[in-house]
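Example 3.
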Amino acid sequence: MSEVKGFLFPRTATGASSLLPAPPWHYSGAMLTLEYRTDPSAVAELLPAPLEVADDDPGAVAVIWADWQSCSDSFEELVDPVRAQYLEAFVVTRCKYQGRHYSRCLFIWVDRDYAMVRGHHQGYPKKLGSVHLTRPVSVGKAGPRLEPGGRFGATLAAYDRRLVEARFTITQPSDDAGFVNALPMVHHRWMPAIESDGTDSVGELVTMSGYDAEVGRTFAGDFEIALFDSPVEELARLQPRELIGGYWREIGVSWRGGTTLERRTAPAIG
Amino acid sequence: MSEVKGFLFPRTATGASSLLPAPPWHYSGAMLTLEYRTDPSAVAELLPAPLEVADDDPGAVAVIWADWQSCSDSFEELVDPVRAQYLEAFVVTRCKYQGRHYSRCLFIWVDRDYAMVRGHHQGYPKKLGSVHLTRPVSVGKAGPRLEPGGRFGATLAAYDRRLVEARFTITQPSDDAGFVNALPMVHHRWMPAIESDGTDSVGELVTMSGYDAEVGRTFAGDFEIALFDSPVEELARLQPRELIGGYWREIGVSWRGGTTLERRTAPAIG
Amino acid sequence: MSEVKGFLFPRTATGASSLLPAPPWHYSGAMLTLEYRTDPSAVAELLPAPLEVADDDPGAVAVIWADWQSCSDSFEELVDPVRAQYLEAFVVTRCKYQGRHYSRCLFIWVDRDYAMVRGHHQGYPKKLGSVHLTRPVSVGKAGPRLEPGGRFGATLAAYDRRLVEARFTITQPSDDAGFVNALPMVHHRWMPAIESDGTDSVGELVTMSGYDAEVGRTFAGDFEIALFDSPVEELARLQPRELIGGYWREIGVSWRGGTTLERRTAPAIG
Amino acid sequence: MSEVKGFLFPRTATGASSLLPAPPWHYSGAMLTLEYRTDPSAVAELLPAPLEVADDDPGAVAVIWADWQSCSDSFEELVDPVRAQYLEAFVVTRCKYQGRHYSRCLFIWVDRDYAMVRGHHQGYPKKLGSVHLTRPVSVGKAGPRLEPGGRFGATLAAYDRRLVEARFTITQPSDDAGFVNALPMVHHRWMPAIESDGTDSVGELVTMSGYDAEVGRTFAGDFEIALFDSPVEELARLQPRELIGGYWREIGVSWRGGTTLERRTAPAIG
């Protein structure tokens, strides 16, 4: 009988095969945040108990694209960039738990397996998708400059269907990047029992934040966004009623862990 | 406060967004199984307590490629085949638990997100990979016939590195498809706590089998296999010492759930 | 000064790097052919002089999915299947040239570079796409049987947009697989001059057929099809007015070369 | 009979389906150039007549990664970034033609169809590959800063085999980015006859340069590089004997066309 190591499966004698290296994980990249108001009831139906809708502006959501490099504390991923670079697109709203407000990820797509499963660890309901975001450039004609008039596109597709497309134009420098994704996150982590009997082996409510956040250049702007239908997605239920504002920001952050707020488990066995 | 539905995340008011539809799941496809003996200690180090090495032939492993279509009970995936078709490659050994022998998946790669996460539910330590397996044909020159002399290739890559390549040649019809992957599976399901403190929110030992298995044409044959190194894989520790035999088989099977043999959980909170 | 070899670029001392091995090329696979009538003027506008519309049924088109294995005369690709397997989807019509009728490919997408460039050699206007086609199975529940009632899906996407989706249901065995794609092909091969001045270095009208065609199981059936829009595609101009019929067929064929019917070249230089 | 439009196939009544929009094409991005000396005879064998080896330093080659955004004069691609972003990796040497020195691309891989075929138009022998290059960042820990000590990785794979991996560390700012890729390009454009009889419909020697080149931040540094084997590549014949130097540079450039130096054509027909 052996002991096995590894932050995640497959666990081995050395731990080297783990789909995820142990935290901390470091992230550097750019985020495009597009905030708008949708029907508050479309948000409410996505907030399971004990979460409640936010007191103010309960229909506010943010659709966010992030273009990341990330790595473990070994920093080895950064010199084998196929293991470091990924994009993700996600939808966030705010909610209330025990009288305190949090940000909450409703839907999220990412383009690498490690980033997907890392999200599952954190409580993000990640699927794979095809995510694209225009990058700013400093020379030549093939990209926006980080200045008023700079124009970006952002798209998301999954299973060969385009789900979102958006265009953003910088209007001015900004000190912030919106309010919807600005709070500590509150996520559910669910693991259905293998009996597939409708019960969960564990259901957790967790909260988490990054640390050592460092913000770089930040700009506000105008945007347009279109959400499309799919037989296996419900993003189109979150159609915009009123646009709030868009933001492009450089950001660096690290993540080590979160805190379990509630945990319910199936009975111990064996 | 709302109720949300869905077998897996993201859970919504309708359940339609779940990355996985509820079981049962149905599978039809072809499997190539290559059995060989490796150093038994290389197998033993991958079997965490309470698992023990198999009594007989403890170094026997099978490297398996499967070319699947799968679907839920709605069968809708079959007419949107981007949601139904995937390939996987995996390594299986046998082990013993409480005096009974089981099959055990050591490593596995798959090329679709739903198949990856479905595997996580079942206890398979799935990563994404690029998996290829020659298909038999019935007309033309571009493929083997299902008859002696039919020649197949099978490869696996992940993160832009080839990990395995194999070639198989049919020698004769066969009634079976080897012995290593022939037992009920025993898997660990691990979910690290979000505190990332080295503890698991839940650790389970589960067993599972399919039902309504239906086998089609089956052939035995000779093979060669090469395992390559990667900084994030340990497959190359399972180098073959002695080849046992190879098998190609058509198979259909359904899966509804498994049984939790042992469950240890972190304390309930909240 | 060296001599370089290779059917296509990059040409080297050995020829081993050529993106394409020299013909002949062998193909085995399955084709789904969906024939319908569209507005004849939408076909006519895609037939450049000296091609003319077909005498009979000038609005008939076929949308075809093919799930191939292919290889060169070395047959080495078949045991490294990442180099042998690909899918393509294409649209064919009939046309007339010098009083004789031909089949003509209007649009085509494929999912591998060698297949794309091989098509360019043959005169097919290939782009990359994501192509999926349900496969028949012989065991289990996750796929159609090759018999009446067997139901297939077929889809095409490019640049993250779904362009076509279709469903086909077998009604009966068939001796043929339609009439639109049944004639020798007539293609244009155009190579714009590097001066990018609107002239072509060479413009050819070519004809080609496979040889050693071998047909396997063939079925006719009913279908539905939907064509979607994209800013860089014009498939949606070929909307169906009347469905003709659908066919699923196993096919094997080889290809060695074609015949140049017309060639116009820019002046020789140097 | 119709007229059809479009810079490249498929040509249609509107031209909107062309795999390539008409030039000019604009590019903005970052290039990593790693220069070293290989066996001059390995270079010589890749230079077909009438090209000759360079007078000085005939074994010097550059392996280059480029991380691009590109667009046409419509600039529409920039707001649908799946149509604008791509990476490429290529190998360049110098050569001599009629007494004048040029740069020459020996091998090249790219990850999008439009970029591949655009390269074919320009004379680059492009294949598809999986190309990755670390990006510099300005905040956070997950990426190098553009300053001494900044460390980058660069990799290339094709058909599930890693072909090149390299690591580069900035040592100092630089005014130039090497000498191997600094000259006008000289390329062959070959189009084999469809008769597949070993003749070319057209064979051209062309030269080309970009215009409106704009260089941004530029750094020199140290590097290591490893070239791996593949049954369908010959990159490993260009093993380094002596490293020269590495360079990272931001660059913007536009391209409108080139000049045909020599053209030999098969006889006109029809």
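The mean pLDDT of chain D is 97. Residues 113-122 of chain D form the longest helix (10 residues).
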